[in-house]
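FW: tagging you since you asked about this chain on Friday. Here's the raw sequence from the shared folder, copied in full. Didn't touch anything.
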Amino acid sequence: MTSSLQNTNRIDALVRATRLMYRMSKARPEPRQSELLYYQMLIRYYERLLKARENGDFVAAHTVFFPSEVLYAMDIAPMHLETTSWMTALFLGEYADLLAAGAELGLASEICSPHRGLAGAFSIGALPKPDVVLWSNMVCDNTAKSGELLMKITGCPGHFLDHPFQDSSEEIAYFTDELKEMVAFLEDHSGRKMDWDRLSLVVGNMDKQLEILRSIHELRKAIPSPFHPQGFLELLTVDYLFAGHPEATEYLETLRQELEEAIAQGKGAVAKERYRLMTLFLPPMYLIGFLEKMSQEFGAVSVAEPFFCQWGDGKLDPKRPLESVALKSYMIPEMNMYAPMGDRAITKIRTAAQEFRIDGAIYYADVGCRHTCATIKLFKDILDDMDIPVLTLDCDVVDPTITSQEEIRGKLEGFFELLDDR
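HL: got it, structure written out here
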């Protein structure tokens, strides 16, 4: 494909943007230490990708929910595709050219915009060519086809990881075998052998991280909420990019300590907490800064995200590392949206609404996501039965043409007025 669109290295831009965010955070009178650690991790993550070729790194581009723990154990540089797409919108505010390039490939607007943008990015060289492409069918059905397309665009070999719907012992064993095949594929193409001792260490770190994540979930029930209004996006990113990584453990331990101290001091994330909100699905990444300002202005805090931060129960066993990686895949909060809708997802919404004492819920209806939009009425009816108002916002996670900042502000102000009148 030929394109007149500018060939811009987004990884280089992300490194510069995350460095700037780190410096800005550090310059605050009382910087949040966990936030500084968070940006340091992002800087190192994208610096590794930026310098991968000169350092002789083997780069594996992978889709969301892919077990990057395996990649870290093999010393393979991971490139999380969807998160890199979101970061481009969040930190750079540059996404229109990537969507335009995706449209030139023939991708319809109904397809998930991060995947359209990723296809466009690789086609115009805005993202570096990986050595392999890895993808799965976990949760998001767009990924099941996106990997094939990215293989075609980049000319890279690829591997598909088939994840069963249910979590019976037979299906966990099946997925473990799938992981073994993936390891063999990576060994063949990278020339690197799996370091099983290292994977055991990663699994041990991961088990500790899950324990901390569950405790952070409990701490967020405090009134006022100690966690900053859109903080759940940090938790998402840390798991997506750094699962089992020692730096992630340090970040989570630091965050937990900060929350405990804030609760002991009766200190909330906003000056005066007025609205405790449930967030359903992802807000527009290009408006995160604006949403943070709105939260501070109106005292509105997202305290519960049932499909992002509520991890399932269970322990991981470092002595059985690959089986533990398979088991962890069934604990992720988003797995409640995988396969036919069942009581598990409905129960999570009801329980979270009660335990976190929410006043209302915001449903970010991403127009390109079939999972998101398919459950609007179901989830709204559940919360209506609990007398909890729900605001549905039509939007897109990275495409700013779907809705504007002014539209979002007007609808949020109206929603807060409704909450005040109750």
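FW: The mean pLDDT is 92.
HL: agreed, and The first strand starts at residue 59 and ends at 62.
FW: great, closing this out.
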